[in-house]
Amino acid sequence: MKHKTEFDDRPLPHTAAMKEPENRFNDARRRYEGTMGAAVVRAANWRLMAFASITLSVFLGGGLIYASSRPAAVPYYVDVDKTGAAGNVTKASQDYVVQESSIEYFLGQTIMKLRMVPKDVVQYRHNGDDVKFFLTKSGEKKLGELMKDEHPLQDIKDGKATDVEIIGITKQTGKNLTYQVRWKEKVFDKVDLESEYTMTAFVTVKLSRPTTEDAIQHNPFGIYLDDISWSKER
User: Fold this and answer.
1) What would the pLDDT profile of 114-141 be if each residue is shown by its tens digit?
2) Distance of CA 228 to CAs 48, 56, 145, 167, 179, Å?
3) How many domains does the chain have?
4) Close Cβ partners of 233 (under 8 Å, ≥ 6 residues apart)
5) Which of 34, 164, 207, 218 has the fewest Cβ atoms within 10 Å of its own Cβ atom?
6) Where does the record place the Bacterial virulence protein VirB8 domain (predicted)?
7) Which class for 225: exposed (0-12), middle (13-18), buried (19 or more C-beta within 10 A)?
8) Same structural domain, 68 and 103
9) 106 and 196 share a domain?
10) Are both 58 and 105 inside the same structural domain?
11) Does residue 115 lie within any of the structural domains?
12) Which of 177, 105, 166 is nearest to 139 (CA)?
């Protein structure tokens, strides 16, 4: 049997912290600790922000140093002859003069894309889209008038195709950047040769240095078709 002792009547101690007595000293100490704690937190946040800013600055500075140390891309002009073979290679500059061989090659390629009728309508439209980068407003208007009498899409639908062979390109004396272009056309009706004839065109070009990225990519020499007329030789 358990006997009760004098210790059994003692109150048990509280497990939680004893509440501090309210007085001016304890109240001031709590305010001080709260103020200093907030200041410590703010100081830690500022140190973290400063460290992040320094890290970002170092990263960006290193990127700029790396980019500036890389060799810059230098554009070059590559002249071509009438057949498209590469000729002189010249570093691009503001005083570059377009060579006659480049103009003649441009004219030959433009006439071929304008007059050739492939059997594939997608290829025909692709050729037309390419030519648009080489037309001035005046040249686009003149070409539109010439194409009114042509029916290439109907020819493709009927199974016809036109092959183009450039015969010669001659600069006209006394006329500024005007050329005579002669070529032979062969019209095929499916597989058989239907007709063959020679065409002549007079083309005036305009030189204008490209300024936009799109123009530089498609027409780096800045050679534009400004006026054109053509007819079938008799």
Assistant:
1) 999 999 999 999 999 999 999 999 999 9
2) 70, 59, 10, 18, 10
3) 2
4) 182, 197, 198, 199, 200
5) 34
6) 28-233
7) buried
8) no
9) yes
10) no
11) yes
12) 177
Domain assignment of residue 188, yes or no: yes
Calculate the CA 220 to chain-centre distance: 14
Answer yes or no: is 143 within a domain: yes
Is the pTM value of this prediction over 0.85? Answer: no
| Eight-state DSSP code of residue 81 | -
**Residue 128 and residue 110: Cα distance in Å, rounded?**
10
Give the domain range for residue 61. Answer: 16-72
Q: What is the CATH number of the domain that holds 210?
A: 3.10.450.230
Q: What is the separation, in whole angstroms, between the first and last Cα of the chain?
A: 142
| Amino acid residing at 14 | H
Tokens 């889209």 belong to which residue? 129
Q: Answer whether residue 29 is part of any domain.
A: yes
As beta bridge partners, residue 193 has 188
Residue whose tokens read 């059997």: 119
List, in sequence order, the alpha helices (H) in 178-224. 213-218
pLDDT tens digits, one per residue of 51-87: 677 776 766 666 666 555 655 444 555 555 555 454 4
